[in-house]
Amino acid sequence: MSRLSEANLATAREIIGRYPRPKSALIPLLHLAQEQDGYVSDDAMEHLAELVGTTPAEVLGTCSFYEMFKRHRVGRYVINVCTNISCQLNGGEELLAEAEEILGIRAGGTTEDQMFTLEDVECIAACTEAPCLQVNYRYEHRVGNGDLKTLINDLRSGARTDIPPHGTLATIRQHIDPTRAAGIEPPETAGVPVWFSRRQPAEEDA
Amino acid sequence: MATNAYVPHAAGYVDNEGPKVVTARFTDPEGYLLPHSVASGGYSGLREALSRTPSEVAAEVKEAVLLGRGGAGFPAGIKWGFMPAVWPRYLVVNGDESEPGTYKDRLLMERDPHQLIEGCMIACYALGLNTCFLYVRGEMALAQERIAAALNDAYSHNYVGANVLGTDVSIDIVLTWGAGAYIVGEETALIESLEGNRGMPRLKPPYFPAAKGLYMKPTIVNNVETLSNLPWIIRHGSTAYKQFGSERSPGTRVVAVSGHVNRPGVYEIEQGVVTFRDLFYGENYCQGIRDGNDLKMFIPGGGSAPWFFPEQLDLPLEGGEIGPAGSMLGSGAIVAMDHTTDAVKACHRLVRFFARESCGKCSPCREGTSWEEKILERILAGHGRPADIDLLADVGSKISPSPYPTAAWEAEGLEAVPFPPRQTTICPLGPSSVAPITSALRRFRHEFEAKVANNASPDEAADASDSWGTEVVMGGQQ
Question: How high is the pLDDT of residue B122?
């Protein structure tokens, strides 16, 4: 769809400033692009390439490696049902089948109204809470009888205001006040921290 | 006082008896906030560390024998010692928890981010470096949010950043995150990801990121739980730390016990003391197998670990004993499976995970794991051929030349082959796919045979599916 907006461009510049080399900011920037548009567009990737000083092909190379980056439109809510071992043992596959039934799509698909995308995912670190799922990477634990139906109805009706649309991860960003920063330097120029030289006599250096 | 019950706001965590090194604030619903942390001793370990020299702090950690909690179990103090006297150097925190069955780093990040930040600061100070990257798994939105908020508070209250606690020490911690790739848990893949690249493990040598890591500069990669131990160790000392656990494995571990148990949960336990039997059957722990069923097998340390069976129940959770018995403690992920479990199905699900997560860099893993998956798929679909069973083992042996580590089976006179395996790949992902296969085949070969018994003629079987059973549709993503 589009390049980064003015507001997101400012955020992007702040993020880039936190890394010793600009390209290190690429994954956070791809998330930013996905937050803006709901997916990562070709235009956004070109824009990111300009920002971090690499080629669009390199950006695509990174983007296409990671499962969370979508390069096409997905639903407003991405429902990730875990079917890995702990969830499988406790009904994860049945839960996925139920989701397919309710939504009328197979895992990997998106509903026609663009509300839901369903995915069959690997372990999401809630194994004691099996079977579990995530909606836009927010957890639902121990999803039992009828819970899924309620969840989908609530999402449809807009009752789940706690879950932002797909693309938004943390709703709080790290912000380093320049007066509070220790200072990030490129690896080529960064040296021994002054405090370390002062506090650690050289001969004891491990 | 311990309630020996679930804590409502920390899903799955059981507030148990026993020492609390890293989960002490889990019972406080707002334990993740700075004032709550500081009121219960938060950042006093950092204050103490800054009153000593960096090498004194490093020595304290080395003395505590803090074993890495990410999977390999290597002592953190010794790993730190691998760093040459070269700058700049970096600390990278591995919060990419995604090993099947593992659920503890997420809780540590969500429930006590300040403890982790304090641990990072202590490590940075001891290592003499001023840039730390805290890499959180992409799928963990709440953990990212809690850490971002905690870092913002810690910066504005002088616990992180320029002139920490009014001293000359200045250290930055940058929150960064991934985007969904299990392999990024491997330390060189994590570093590639942090350089903005595809998260593929680096060719070795150089063998240790401690010598050449991020930007080819010395880099220590430590797990979230490992670093979360540091504030306690510095506050109370390594001698007090070693009061907990066994001599070889001091301290506590946070383990997640899931699967077919009555009370699955996240428990902080003393290392090397508590046994698997205690965990599965103890009143304070999982309270038995569901419906009074028999235990068939269990995974002692995540999806990559060879399975254990009832005869290994009395082993303590101690790396020094579990390795020689043919498996690993890994990431503290314990999965119990009762007698109703289909061993072939469980094996397939784990293998499918590795096939999906293979990064594609080494051919034995890229090709081999998907072969394994397809063979298992067609056995499950009823199209398996008798020769498939040996084929499966053969493909595995190309990724991990035998003998593959496996638990002893005294009844058959089999000896345990100790962990870790040999491998034809750069990283352990490919060999990990062989763990469930060898485990299931060695103990439950009859289950595989029963599934292929009706397909005695290879030709008929080949006709029933196409030659590779590709009519079986593969799951959702790549």
Answer: 98
